[in-house]
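Suppose a colleague, Dr. K., hands you the sequence of a protein chain of 149 amino acids and asks what its three-dimensional shape might be. Before reaching for any lab equipment, you can write down a predicted structure in token form. Begin with the sequence itself:
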Amino acid sequence: AKTAILPNISGVASGAHNYSEFPTSGSKIGAASTSYVGDGLTATLKQLIYDGGKVAAQLRAAKATESGALATYKRQLQTVAFNVTNAYYAALAAQRTTQVAAETVKLNQVNADLVSAQIAAGTTARSELLTAQLPVAQARVALERWKII
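The predicted structure, expressed as tokens, is then:
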């Protein structure tokens, strides 16, 4: 769009010579004559003076398009950074949740083992073992769910 306001220079150079084999009056027979026709040089310089604001409007439109494209590019960069950050934190949260689920399985298994030891010692009823094994099973199910995700 800026080229419309810059000067436009063009030039043409030409030259012509005419050689003939015909003798001219007063010349020797067999001698060639040369006539000079001319050389020419033309240069043209064009400069826009007034166009009704067409070029200025084109310049404003080009700048607005460039500004819009730059803003879109920046927004896309921010969107990518946001998505990467969210994915990173989601992965960290899943990793920590899996670790918590694994620790919960261990803790519930220790409680179930304690109840088994109490049953062996005769201080607790056998029915308490099923009650202690239920949280172990639930924690294992939760752990497997997080491993799948």
